[in-house]
Fold each of these.
Amino acid sequence: MKSLSYILILLAIVLSSCEKIIEIDIEDAEVNLVVNALFNNDSLWKVEISQSKHVFDTSNIKMVNDATVTIKSSTGNEILLTYDKNGMYISQTDKPIQGETYSLEVLHSTLENVNAISSLPSPVQFTNLELGGKYFINGEENKELKVNFIDSQQEDYYMLKCSALFWYWEFDSNLTVADTSYYEASLSFMTNSTYVSENGLDYYRNYILFSDEYFNGSEVSVNLLIPENNFIQDTVWGYGIDKLYVSLSTISKDYKLYQTSYDKYLSIQGDPFAQPVQVYTNINNGFGIFAGISTTKDSIAIK
Amino acid sequence: MHAQKATISGYIEDVKSGEKLIGATIYDATSLKGTTSNIYGFYSLTLDTGQVEFTVSYVGYQTVRKRIDLKSDLFQNIELSSDIQLGEVEISAEKSEKIHQVNQMSTAKLSMKQVEKLPAFMGEVDLLKTIQLLPGIQSGGEGNGGLYVRGGGPDQNLIMLDGVPVYNASHLFGFFSVFNSSAINTAEVITGGFPARYGGRSSSVIDIRMKEGNMKELKGEASIGLISSKFMLEGPLWKDKTSFVISGRRTYIDFLAKPLIKAVATRNGSPGSTMGYFFYDLNAKVNHKFSEKSRLYISAYLGDDRAYAAIKESSEIEKTSIESNLGWNWGNMITAIRYNQIINNKLFANFTLNYSRYRSLIDISYLFKEQFTDSLAESTFNMNYLSGIDDYGTNLTFDYIPNSNNYIKFGASNTYHVFTPGTNSLKIQAGKSKLDTTIGASIIKANEMHFFAEDEIRIRSRFKMNAGLHLSTFKVNDSTYENLQPRISSSYALAENLTLKASYSRMAQYIHLLTNGTVGFPTDLWVPVTDTIPPIQADQVALGLAYTYSNKYEFSVEGYYKNMKNLIEYKDGASFFGNAKTWQTKIEEGMGWSYGSEFLAKKTQGKTTGWVGYTLSWTKRQFQNLNKGFVYPYTYDRRHDISLAVVHQFRTHSEDKSGIDFGVIWVYGTGKAISLPNSTYKAYDASNYYYNYGFYSSEIDNYAQKNGYRQPSYHRLDISVTTTKNIKKRQRIWAFGVYNIYNRKNPFLIQMAYNNNGERVLKQYSLFPLIPSISYTLKF
């Protein structure tokens, strides 16, 4: 139906040909610190600091290299991050710990100081990964992938992704198979599990974000529908799929709100009739996101 | 000792056509008591027996005076004549009801004669556009046909044609209203202090009555305009017993543009391609008099907008051809059967059966052919998108006039709604594989009932009151909503020509229109309240003063405060072309309020007539999940709204009433509230992530406040010159007009864009520059 919108815009423009550049006084917006940091227990702390600019300013985003960035854990442990490069502040040895809550403080000599708080949620384990039967959407064949896991008693938020390891033959100059190579690529999928997608079947996407609102504390099975053409095994030209990877991240509510609103923000770019989106932030006095994310990744072999 | 009472009742009619006169004044100079005729022209007045000095008057008609020695109940039809010389106008209208004499506040009656003399957009006389010129009623701005009344949305107006709600009141994305002016008799607009007889919408009532048809002789008119032609024919089927009126209108932009489109298509190498748009409407009504006391009316309206495009492309080299078709079809159908019965001289009954439908159908098809040496391969794709609403209604109302101090109305109605909130059906065929499926929301059925009783009471000669109760219920799925709505309005004469008015009303509304608000798309969707979305409830208080000076000038000032609960708005990021099945997930629920004051100065008689209105108002919204829960201005929050509508009669031949009228409209409104970003910042660098959308923006524009900015203000000046010439029984009218004479570029859409230097700018798109128009009308 999106094409309709373009036709209407076109119509509006054809009708009008009355286009002019106007001035609406957009007051000089304050320049704020922007924090972008997702942390997990496998990596050192990495916090990126930049600054916002006026909406009409088309110059490159300025990174901030003179801020004081500190992380405090709920146990009182204080980590001072050191400036690396490109606005990135890192820890030397400290890594985030699962279940711990951290507060971030960024001090700056001229810009307003900002702070944020987030926890690193505990990961969940898959209880089963299983390929199912065929599922048709608008005549297109899909393969079902059942992803089972046990939700905790707390309020949880998840991001679920799927990728595949593909193989292909490398030929030598005599056109005989010299080697088999592999590469990983993300897969788009839909889901018909309504408890993880408020809209049910809508369009293929590379990840889904959901909460445990409808299954809190119980084992849940999410049904992913992956287009069948990903599963072709061609033994003539030599390409195909080797295994599927499923990654399930437990994320904070803040990150879910940030990513959901940012996705919406992206989805309406170019549609002048859509409602504008205020992208969520959990940075007090600033913009961006500071959130913990714990990921479990597993694979399933394709015969 | 009590004096004996007797009742005079009957109909008030136009002597020439037999057309009923709505709202004519009947007044007894002896007892100083009076009444007005109802929407079917019926009146009833109970007086002391003895000498009665009976005066019947109606704007634009000669006043009838009768001396009657009233001894017992009398059934008396009264015929008024509009055949008056100009000099007599002032005298004739002298006794018409003035603004300070009417108890009802926040109301305006429009005469089609005046509407027709005002400048019209593209020459199309438009009732709703004229209504937008009244204080308290705003237009949505450039290209928006919606009415925004005292802070309410465009779906909160009860627009009725002969008492039947009309769902889609505009053609072509809101540029024209669906009402063909030549079929309309009267229109009344109420924006506050609602009488109990109205219900179902929360912000206004627009009661439009169609002509009934001339009972005496065949009359008609035909008109040719810049973009459309229309006709109207009325007359007796059986003299003084049965009459009919039929009118129609069709635009012909599509015919006119055909050669141009063909030329462009041929030049672009796809000669079979075409596109077009038109709308039409048809009104018909038959009116039969069984006896003096019983009448039957059958009326129908049918109107549609149709847009179509076909693209044909073929390649000789690849031996392929592609044919795609796009069609939209949307419109209303309304039918009503009404039966009037005068049960006795104090009791009048009306029974109505009606059917109202709004439907929007979008049809997209695609045919691909490829010629191989030995075969022809074909694949087809066909998609339909249907949405709409069907209403089946019954309605029984009574007017009971026990004495000259009370006018009681009571009644009940039932409407069965069938909502089709968007279904897609899809057919695909490629070679041997086939698909035929229907997706989308299932039909929702709902039942709406209304009961009301009201009494217009003359407490003392200076003090009048209309008190009533309206009860409505709405049953949908497993939920039943009930709403008891008290309505009270009163007026007190402070001085001879000065009246103080006050009112309180509660209104409930059970249906919502999901609309993008920028333009009226055919995809706008009427949806009912649900288990989770409760009905809108609006409480309004208003206080006003009405003053009449020298019988020619009317002044009114009103202040109002309105509180609205359970309003809906689209969520951030909602787009309007998604799957209708999910509409409930796209909306947020919240509240709003509006307050302001409205000033109106009107000249009703003389060579120059018209009005100037000014509204100062504030409208706010608050939604938990929008604008971080903070209060924000409503999109149509309009601080200042000015409208001027004046018609001047230049000269008139006293013999044949030929003349020239000059009309002017000027409107000004504070710019619409819009959301604009004020700063930009870096998004989380998710370079390790895969994006759900085909593109990725690493910078986010921050919208600090919803509706935090204003579009440039809206204003324009329109003028018209109408020359009327009467030749024997015929009248010919030439109307010339210029819309937006100083070519103001009013904002339709404002967008962030880049200019040629790569700088970010705000681009404004407007729709209507200066547009001249001409039309010719022949009345016979």
Note: Chain B touches chain A through 80 residues (CB under 8 Å).
Amino acid sequence: MRALIVEVPSCPNAALFDVAGRPLLVRQLQWLRDGGITQVVIEVAGSSHPTSLYGWLLGDDPLLDGCTIIPTEHPLGARAVALRAGIPLDEVLVTLPADVLAQGDLPQLVEPGRYVLYAPDGMDAPPVTIAIEALDGPEAPPRLHDGWALRVGSPLAAHTLSCAALMGAAPGVLIHGAEVKPGIWLGRGARIAEDVELRAPLFIGPEARVMSRAQLGPRVTVGRGCVIEREAQLSDCSIAPNTLVGEATRARGAHLSAAHMTSLSDGTLTAIDDPLVLTRVHAPARVRLASRLLAIVLIAPLLLPWLLVTLLLLPWRRPVRTVLVRGTPLHVGSLGVPLLDSYPALFDVAIGLRSLVGATEPALLEALPRDLGLPAGAIDILPSLAPSERRDTQLRLLRWYALHKARDLDFALWLRRFH
Amino acid sequence: MPPTTSAERVLTIPGPALSREAVGDLARQISPDAASVEAPIVIDCHNIRDVSPTGLSALIDLRADHERVRFALVALSKPMLAAALELGLSERFTICVSVEAAHRTLRQEGG
């Protein structure tokens, strides 16, 4: 039997909702695989998903063996997705909405039909119907199943389910960690200082670190690789993987990521532009030493030609100026002489403020799509990256470049400028 | 002018790279045939093992140049699937697993 995981219009990013340390999509695939279903068609609608979802879908996770990814413009529904996946409409299959997590014995569901599953005990949520039938077949009357299912339609719902699973109230949700005290789970490689205060339900993800005198819980899930600095106080929170929560930071009722805080109750997103409060554990990519050395080598021989051209142009206009880009002063301007245009920017490269070619990955991704003209790299790669005057094409290619930036790609783009 | 009911045309990118030149060849195959200019076009990508940014740019431009034509990309290899997800190609192209699936999809969706 095959399965379809179809997107839900009201909840476009459900796949990555964290359920006790694992994304919802992973939990769904695990459940299907436990029931012997390995051929799964996954609809990925739109292009606004976090890049981490694409990275996972394109990676080598064994859970994805046998899976087929169908990118769609918007959620299409099971029938249209099945058509695109080449599944005959008279084939019996499991149709699972992307925001539903179900548990229970899947082999019991081999008989085609519509199964009604109630929420786990103690959780107030409407029942969910899971269809196991041909998309072109007659609609069977619903019947009760003794497993449970829950619509995880918001970060709050995911967090509530996580906490229930940590307390053992959502049977079947496997917690990948060790229960050191009732309701307190530590992932593999997680380290906590001796004087931290932990309250259940709490999950500290693999490789995470919790520093001295921090207070975590109740109802907190900490993602993989996070660092919770000393004296931080968190309750009713979920922390995205690889997030650093700064010293003495206090948060409650929120999902925290590297630069944002999202209210779990109403979804309000607040940007936190202070690395002392929230930031990535791994610092953004820095300008490579080789690029800086090359810039220094180029500065000397180009000095005289650049001075001459600048002095010649000076009576008519001021060719180079300094602008602030997210607080960093960068040299911009054009002499109209291709080889010398990048000269002032070489100084920025030499002192590590910008990359030689294109942009460093985080800077470019954060700037899109607000600022297409961002002077991110000393050498502008846009003409060779997207030799199109369509802004939409340029934006799409810049995003692609931001995800794939590498020395070979930069060199190929730089060479193409001379073609 | 309403869409025609002409059968889909299947064009195969020879590969192994999605380059500007390869997309240029596709564009030449599409443009001269004025009679079927509005027939859906299925682009078979199964040979593609590598994508270049200029090839991707050309593919998006090709789509924009034929706004009234329905396009489908089929048999996406991993690099093409990555590009499709990261570039949002699904907003421009119908993406299917096979030529047969594209035929059925385009016929169903085209009414």
Note: The CA atoms of residues 113 and 140 of chain A lie 5 Å apart.
